[in-house]
Predict the structure.
Amino acid sequence: MEKARAADKRPRPAGAHARPAAATLSAPDEYLRRADPVLRGLIDASGPIDPETDRRGSRPDPFEALARAIVGQQLSTKAARSIWERVVESLDGRVAPAKLIAADPADLRAAGLSNSKVAYLRDLSERVESGDLDLERIAEVADEDVVAELIEIKGIGRWTAEMFLIFHLARPDVISTGDLGIRRATQLAYGLDELPGPTDLERIAEPWRPHRTLACLYLWRSLQNAPA
């Protein structure tokens, strides 16, 4: 069972700073500010998400997006980025199904991957190469159907599928209730005694619809801990 990314930095207190005078807020930003006073505090404290931070759809290659999510499971942002860079280097600068199938597992382990992650990446690669997983068609599928299809792959759980929805497909209304960064940011921002569970987080996030993905970006930013 995969575990989501841990978080360890406190966000700025909601409303700790005045809203930047020069900030230009999008319609979804304004929607979230009106819908939730806590999010309003996070947005006003540091301004709207800038292009460098707003990484929705930032991984244009679907295979690479899934491979990178697998590599990042159970790791901090910094560790995930470092290992990913070494994996890319070991594959001569490009991660692709045929390259991963042909790669020496020892080289991948030397890059920092566990035996299980090497197996997961190989299973993903073989499914794509055989055509069992059509990553072009999946872009046309509804969110929950994407999740249902991806979790059939060895080593891919709901968190990895949700990261694919956000960082490859740029779906606007995803809430990753199992992500430890989002849970930790919510606990701190809302002054909760404990980490919220999935049901609690779904309830808190209900007013954010249909912009729950953007709300997640603000929560990640408050911890400076968005997935790598």
